[in-house]
Amino acid sequence: MPSDPARLTSLAHGGGCGCKLAPSALAEILAGLPAANAFPNLLVGAETADDAAVWRLNDDQALVATCDFFMPIVDDPFDFGRIAAVNALSDIYAMGARPILALAIVGMPVDKLPVESIRAILAGGAAVCADAGVPVAGGHSIDSAEPIYGLVAIGLVHPARLLRNSTARAGDVLILTKALGVGVLSAAFKQERLEAGGYEALIASTTQLNAVGAELAGMGGVHAVTDVTGFGLIGHALEMARGAGVTIEIEATAAPLLAGVEDLARVGVRTGAAARNWASYGKAVRLGDLPDWRRDVFCDPQTSGGLLIAVTESRSGEVLALVRRSGFQAAARVGRAIAGPPEIRVV
């Protein structure tokens, strides 16, 4: 496994898991701040914790904007840059948009990291943006105590084709495009317990662009999309359930897992963020007889995770085929939305 001499992950004191603030903590922080809904052209703000903000430019175009950054989950600087860029662009694709521009967010401990490593991080991000067909047109950098990298990403979508996380309907099938377990693998990596196959699976998953999201925009039967990131599968499914006012059932054994994740999870390898996620939203989840290790995987923070798609039963086969043709071979049907209170049931 590649490793920079400075060992990037050892400089990320916060863990570098790519996890977000817990929903309860974020709600408390935002309480009392001015609302943005006074602007009629703001189609999507923070009201449903969606993946990006959306501003209507005209009848045919809406601007999609997001900002995402984190600390390293791997030591190879080029791979770190790639992962962070893919993760940021995913928010654009999750809204059904196509990215057009990116700006770099760079915080580096310049007294600890050699210039070559910092340059490699930026090169990794630029390479991903080039693959997505967008320039890194600028950005902002600071000298920070820990390495931080990410992007401001801008995209465009037709307002009528905008995809949201809050518009699922009872009867929809849920499809997940990527396997779970990024947090478990990154924790094992930090503990020096990750074998080569697991590391390869980690890199392959986190550097795969979710560009298929733009293909889903305007596709009949696709009602809602979100990307599964820091809150884990359960957390982002719960956002979907709350936004739409439906119950979401997740099949206990249907979600695909990355190579090596089950074995590691069964012996207790997990991130601290998985436990914090569960503490934050566990009261809204009915687990049934789910074993603790699988609960941890469902709460596992997914840096650069897959898309969770809510689609009608009649079009689910077509969507699943499209996703797999786009390179997401692990994609699977993982649950459904039903009429009921906004909660998660594992069945």
Write the SSE topology.
Blueprint: H1 8-11, H2 23-30, E1 42-44, E2 53-56, E3 62-70, H3 77-94, E4 98-108, H4 115-132, E5 136-143, E6 148-157, E7 173-176, H5 182-190, H6 196-206, H7 212-216, E8 222-227, H8 232-244, E9 247-250, H9 261-266, H10 272-281, E10 285-286, H11 292-298, E11 307-311, H12 313-325, E12 332-338, E13 344-346
Parallel strand pairs: 4-5, 9-13, 10-13
Antiparallel strand pairs: 1-2, 2-3, 3-6, 4-6, 7-11, 7-12, 8-11, 9-12
Describe the protein's architecture and organization.
The structure is a single chain. The protein has 347 residues and is α+β, with helices and mostly antiparallel strands. It has two domains: 8-161, PurM-like, N-terminal domain (60s Ribosomal Protein L30, Chain: A, 2-Layer Sandwich); 173-346, Phosphoribosyl-aminoimidazole Synthetase, Chain A, domain 2 (Alpha-Beta Complex). 35% of the residues lie in helices and 22% in strands. The strands form two sheets. Strands 8-11-7-12-9-13-10 form a seven-stranded mixed β-sheet. Strands 1-2-3-6-4-5 form a six-stranded mixed β-sheet, with helices on one face. The longest helix has 18 residues, at 77-94. It is globular, with a radius of gyration of 19 Å. It starts with 7 loop residues before the first helix and ends with a strand.
| Percent in helix | 25-40%
Order of helices and strands: HHEEEHEHEEEHHHEHEHHEHEHEE
Known CATH architecture of the largest domain: Alpha-Beta Complex
Percent strand equals 15-25%
Distance between the termini: 38 Å
Q: What's the name of the CATH homologous superfamily of the largest domain?
A: PurM-like C-terminal domain
Overall structural class, as computed from helix and strand content, comes to: alpha+beta
Per DSSP, the total helix count is 12
Q: Tell me, what is the CATH class of the largest domain?
A: Alpha Beta
CATH topology of the largest domain: Phosphoribosyl-aminoimidazole Synthetase, Chain A, domain 2
